[in-house]
Design goal:
Blueprint: H1 4-19, H2 27-34, H3 38-44, H4 48-62, H5 72-85, H6 87-94, H7 99-124, E1 128-129, H8 137-152, H9 159-167, H10 171-177, E2 181-182
Antiparallel strand pairs: 1-2
Helix pairs in contact: 1-2, 1-4, 1-6, 4-7, 5-7, 5-9, 7-8
């Protein structure tokens, strides 16, 4: 968030989305709840979806802590927990024309986890080099699909069991997917 006013409008959008479908919320509703004028809203955002996107981007960064090889699956669990605390909010997004923003929120949080994990591994796993482009497409979209299926399926499963399955990826496979190669396996490696 860049300013107090922007944060205020995003928070108003969030509160309104808790009460009704995103499609039913108007810019007029947001500015009234925020106690700002319409011109101020359009100075910061293109439309209500842009406001919601800014709010969700901010939240995806907030829910992810420092990520290490030991806690990365716990960070993934934070996404489930955040959604579980705000099910009506996400339902009102998912059942509207803003559903892609829900998908993006989940994906952004997962990408943040994976990027922070790669940074942590580069610093701490000296037996690996990370000189390849990470191949995180499968893992990030797989993790996103698990969250979205869980939510759209009524959040019946315990997220800890879902996360446990992902966390059981063996270290070598995970390192490979994240662009790491064990130093002893690298022939003629010359940094």
């Amino acid at each position: 968030m860049k300013s107090y006013t922007e944060l205020k409008m995003c928070e108003s959008m969030s509160r309104l989305t808790e009460k009704e479908l995103c499609d039913d919320i108007t810019v007029k509703d947001i500015v009234k709840a925020s106690q700002v004028n319409r011109q101020t809203f359009y100075y910061h955002f293109e439309d209500k979806y842009d406001c919601l996107r800014a709010y969700l981007d901010n939240q995806s960064q907030k829910i992810i802590n420092d990520v290490t090889i030991k806690n990365w699956s716990e960070c993934y669990l934070h996404i489930f927990r955040y959604i579980d605390v705000h099910p009506t909010f996400f339902y009102h997004i998912d059942k509207s024309s803003a559903s892609s923003l829900f998908n993006d929120f989940v994906l952004e949080a997962i990408v943040t986890i994976l990027q922070r994990l790669i940074s942590s591994l580069k610093e701490k796993c000296l037996d690996y080099i990370f000189d390849k482009t990470p191949n995180i497409q499968v893992i990030k979209y797989g993790m996103q699909g698990i969250v979205l299926s869980w939510f759209r399926g009524g959040m019946r499963e315990n997220p800890e069991f879902l996360v446990k399955d992902i966390a059981e990826i063996d270290r070598e496979t995970l390192m490979h997917m994240l662009g790491g190669t064990r130093v002893e396996n690298v022939s003629n490696y010359n940094p």
